[in-house]
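## retry 2 of 3
previous attempt timed out at serialization; input unchanged, resubmitting
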Amino acid sequence: MNFKFKTYAAALLAVSLVTSFAYAGNPAPAARKHTATKKAATPATPTVEEQIQALRQELQSQIDSLKTSLADKDAQLKQAQQAAADARAAAASAEAAASSQQQAKPHYRKKIVSNLLMLEKSHGCEKSLRGFLC
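## retry succeeded, writing output
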């Protein structure tokens, strides 16, 4: 009887191990309920009038930016023209000053020569300095 009991216990242990491994594998997925999915609401397509209005707004913004850019460039051009005019005026005044200095040099030279000649006459060395200066 002891032998039968051990055999019966071993068989029971083997059956329980086989069944536990069967359940330990992948469990069967639970049955799913079919749920109705809602369709995503499609956005309404814009009408032709809305498309035209959007294009008008886009073009108007481009026109405004071009006007601003043109105004900036005009201001830069005016500044450059003013700077050029100022430079021309400065050049003209410098040229006039240089011209007046050139005209003044012969006048001073004549005055210096006449003063030296007067000194020559007073000291009696007219021939020596005249040859040097003339």
